[in-house]
Amino acid sequence: MDVQETTAACRDAFAELASPACIHDPYPFMRWLREHDPVHRAASGLFLLSRHADIYWALEATGDAFRGPAPGELARYFPRAATSLSLNLMASTIAMKDPPTHTRLRRLISRDFTMRQIDSLRPSIARIVAARLDGMAPALERGEAVDLHREFALALPMLVFAELFGMPQDDMFGLAAGIGAILEGLSPHASDAQLAAADAGSARVQAYFGDLIQRKRTDPRHDIVSMLVGAHDDDADTLSDVELISMLWGMLLGGFTTTAATIDHAVLAMLAYPEQRHWLQGEAVGVKAFVEEVLRCDAPAMFSATPRIAQRDIELGGVVIPKNADVRVLIAAGNRDPDAFADPDRFDPARFYGTSPGMSTDGKIMLSFGHGIHFCPGAQLARVELAESLPRILARFPTLALAEQPTREPSAFLRTFRALPVRLHAHAGG
Questions:
Q1: What are the helix and strand counts (H, E) for the chain?
Q2: Per UniProt, which keywords does this protein have (predicted)?
């Protein structure tokens, strides 16, 4: 049975995205949705946009046509928020705030979390990458299979966050173990059990960061947490402990699992398209093009997790989205919209060669980091991690190959992995 036959009566795209067929390959369904129901109303009442033009407009119109939920509305959009720590933490993140609160928080974060600060991490990231590859080498050279997802893709962002936050590595590994459960609990269709598991993980993260903030206040070092709690001679405004914990919680959730998934997808692209490996063997502009195309082809977050509330009745594609409706965007569908990217299912880094980050040679925006006032503040860090790791993986293990098919997490929200077994092959690309 083809995609149209199986989805013609689709009442809930979120439920369909959680089906085994979509976990394996969501793009045929996304294509159907984009072509037949691009302004989809799910059974829960949520609206889901899947065309690039609509998603781009909705993200850019946040703060105008759309807003985050006001504190008094939280129970309406999150009925379980009264008893859920995770939902309350999400509601307090910068992604849920509107100007002027958003403007203030973004300024305070950007004051210390700068491009220069991120670029200063490059030597540390290169050192971490080399150490992880050294750790994998003996088993690979003995002909054994190694889980690249666990040994490298997950480990790299964890260790980078430990460096960035000024935390012991073991502490970060302990916190990171619960991130997947928190993310699943924040999905619109999470069960009560999933939300309870998320709250347990969030409580551990909240307690740890509360203690970390106090330690950095009394014994500051050269890390981002010390900078964020420190005084600034030219700016008396500071983040409160509650705001800072929310920010760190959001950074950990937004930049850990997603970066790991993108590393996994990038390695799979290296293996699937050996003719494209030359992008990783030359100048930085070619590496950047390869990274952007990976992010476009396989956005780690399928759709937006945070609500965008319509401030008025909005008509899109002949469908009226009523005022106060909760609207989400299907990022992965927009990234494969043929009206934005020619031949969108083809892996082609050339479409991003020599352009500004996230922009194609046709002037279209790759949506994986969002757009507008809520553009991901950790985008540059993720790009640096990918740019520092992919050429080194290829150079160190040019005959890397799949040992068996990777195993994906059964998540509608995040296109992530449980395992990515690899081994060295006698012939490159084998």
A1: 21, 12
A2: Heme, Iron, Metal-binding, Monooxygenase, Oxidoreductase
